[in-house]
Amino acid sequence: MGGGQLGRMFVHAAQRMGYQTAVLEADGESPAGRVSHHHVRSGYTDARGLAQLAELSQAITTEFENVPAAALQQLAKHRPVAPAGEAVAIAQDRALEKAHFVRCGVPCAPHAVIETREQLAAVPADLLPGILKTARLGYDGKGQVRVATPSELATAWEGVGRVPCVLEKLLPLAFECSVVVARGRDGVMVQLPVQRNLHRDGILAVTEVYEGNVPPALGAKAVAATRAIAEGIGYVGVLCVEFFGLADGSLVVNEMAPRPHNSGHWSMDGADISQFELQVRTLAGLPLAAPRQHSAAVMLNLLGDLWFRSAATPSEPDWASVLALPGAQLHLYGKREARAGRKMGHLTMVAADAETARAGALRAAALLGLPAF
Ligand code: ATP
Ligand code: MG
Ligand code: MG
Q: Which ligand has the nearest atom to the CA of 166?
């Protein structure tokens, strides 16, 4: 379900293993729909489209985080569905998500749920300065407002239309990281190594994966927390959990995504089993062998901004110059139109060691006009 780049990379992984695919997506020109054997052109709530998808499929998964949980539950009456609608519903709502983290004993940022004027008025002063986040439908930093005072908070809540929100205390981040796990129906769980992430303007910009990318004790904590979070909802499928490493040396969980994640894209080139193959394996009920990272990897996200470096009309970046660098792996998602902030592709630099991967990625960034990191 869903026709974006995550669906496209899933389709590629499934097809490589001999499966046929069907994509449910209303847009006729989507990245996943255009490479799939079947393309059901339908919205996520259209009963006919869902019936057609079930008819075509032996098992169903989603690449789109905001697919209605009810649609997954409906499909689950006819076909195995992973992840389950119940798990996706928790990930779709920051308030439910944080309650789940607390239940699993994993610390998250101090926060307050704001659904009413009374809750707004009762927000403790020590949550400010903070970030007001809409409880639902936010991604890439959209639906978030930084607020320093109670009056800024009130204005921000008005500004988002008084929808249910979570106010989070603004934390002093030392670094960000994430962990991708895959859990099968039999409860077997495997994970990818801890991924160190750099965000710019609320959007993932760089992911670095190699020994020593984060303090080892915190990396081990992040893996244990991710496994507890998946275990705690009997999760089946691929799950990514994002964390903040704080200045005082502690680790708190940020949020989870019930699917492969942008920060796991390096695994297509740096590990023997990618996060998309893990998704295929969980869906098909195949064994989950532990992925082995064989190369140090640094991934650069390629946003639409790159297409507007030299002129107001979009022009293709100079891929040839970066592809001349050893270890450069270019992935473009086949989106019809470049727009600022839109994820158009990514570049993974792989090498035998971290220094070489980093040097190559910095060289590629310079060639493309991306900032150093
Ligand atoms: P995604 O595209 O990852 O789903 P999102 O829109 O759900 O993003 P978050 O992950 O909540 O957004 O936040 C985006 C980024 O903003 C974080 O990666 C982090 O850099 C920063 N951020 C979020 N919450 C906090 C916080 N409480 N304190 C400090 N920085 C934060
Ligand atoms: Mg998010
Ligand atoms: Mg995030």
A: 1
